[in-house]
Amino acid sequence: MSAPAPAPAVPGAPTPGRTAPAPSGIRFEGVTVAYGGNVVLDRLDLTVEPGEVMALLGPSGSGKTTALRAVAGFVRPASGQVFLGGRDVTALPPHRRGIGMVVQSYALFPHLKVKDNVAFGLKAHRTPKAEIPGRVTEALELVGMAAYAERHPRELSGGQQQRVAIARALAIRPGVLLLDEPLSALDARLRSGMLAELARLHRELPDVSILYVTHDQVEALTLADRIAVMDASRLQDCGTPLELYRRPRTEFTASFVGNANLLPVTVAGEGAVGFGGHALAVPTGTAAPGATATLCVRPHLVGIGDGPNALTGSVTEVQWRGSTHRVHADVDGHRLMADLRELREPPALGDPVTLHFAAEDAVLLPDGASEPAGVGP
Ligand SMILES: Nc1ncnc2c1ncn2[C@@H]1O[C@H](COP(=O)(O)OP(=O)(O)OP(=O)(O)O)[C@@H](O)[C@H]1O
Ligand SMILES: [Mg+2]
């Protein structure tokens, strides 16, 4: 009798003792979600690269959570596809997508100890029993909560509970981490501490793609590699924080990412616009003479006194903001704000004031340019 032939290798079978890395990277292709015929996410095209942190920023009701739920599999798109790691997962149930998710309200089980909360997801993912304690410790160490394993959620602060929720999401070693306003239940100081924590966590898990939903621009600017700006069920803009801040493409982005002076202007010719009776020299790009547009100038780029593009108005408000004074002026019925440093004597209300800005610090936003952006990577 001859010895049995060795079993043929099964292509794609996992190597014993090693878990295949979870797929990283998210792609939305024309994803539309409707509730009862009401479209709440309209043809979303967006790619989150492996290892990238993408913030989904937008006002309440703009469709951010819906987009996240479509990735997690809790909502089925009416049309379009969701890809994880290049694979179409649109028809897969949530538990087969290998995703970690953290929501605003922690959703820890109150009757389970910290370690059992973290183990819960691992059991649901059928992790071998012997591996679970090690994986629980690993996840709790990542968020600095290993010393709290034996406590119940009620014995933890809000920030600590949120860390445990993050540990629970990370325990399955997901390739994709979805965070839905994870800091909104925390007070301002804890929030900024947790932001630094999340940034550190991302450095330790450089391959994980993170989709981070927030309506807080500071969180988005601090944490994200890129920001996708949502409004009214649609993606309005997408870019790095600096791109969106310096070169917003729409009025909505300009006012939602950072503060902005938005002045209604008419293009007079190349490099020239009219603002009321004033002629301003600003880049006009491809805008044709006669076209109406909005001029965006960031308040910290506005100076006081005479200079290029000087406009004179009267002071309507002065706010002391610690390192700057924000001076509001009324110029022909329009508000112009300047954030001024080292202002020895702030002007008084009603005083005349001259403000100015450099041509290169102004961005012209042609009217009607707020069509949703088909923005890819
Ligand atoms: N299960 C549902 N049934 C019907 N309508 C829903 C459902 N879930 C969400 N919506 C609606 O879809 C729209 C988008 O909701 P979504 O939760 O995505 O907004 P959001 O951007 O996350 O807002 P917020 O910042 O307030 O959390 C809202 O108008 C909401 O009322
Ligand atoms: Mg939401």
From TrEMBL:
Protein name per the record: ABC transporter ATP-binding protein
Annotated Gene3D superfamilies: 2.40.50.100, P-loop containing nucleotide triphosphate hydrolases (3.40.50.300)
Positions of the ABC transporter domain: 26-257
Biased composition annotated in UniProt, kind: Pro residues: 1-14
GO MF annotation: an example: ATP binding
Region (Disordered): 1-23
InterPro entries listed in its UniProt record: AAA+_ATPase, ABC_SmlMolc_Importer, ABC_transporter-like_ATP-bd, ABC_transporter-like_CS, Mo/tungstate-bd_C_term_dom, P-loop_NTPase, Transp-assoc_OB_typ2
Species in which this protein is naturally found: Streptomyces anulatus (Streptomyces chrysomallus)
UniProt keyword annotations, A-Z: ATP-binding, Nucleotide-binding, Transport
Highest taxon above the source species: Bacteria
Cytoplasm found in the keyword field: no
Pfam families per the UniProt record, alphabetical: ABC_tran (PF00005), TOBE_2 (PF08402)
Listed SMART domains: AAA
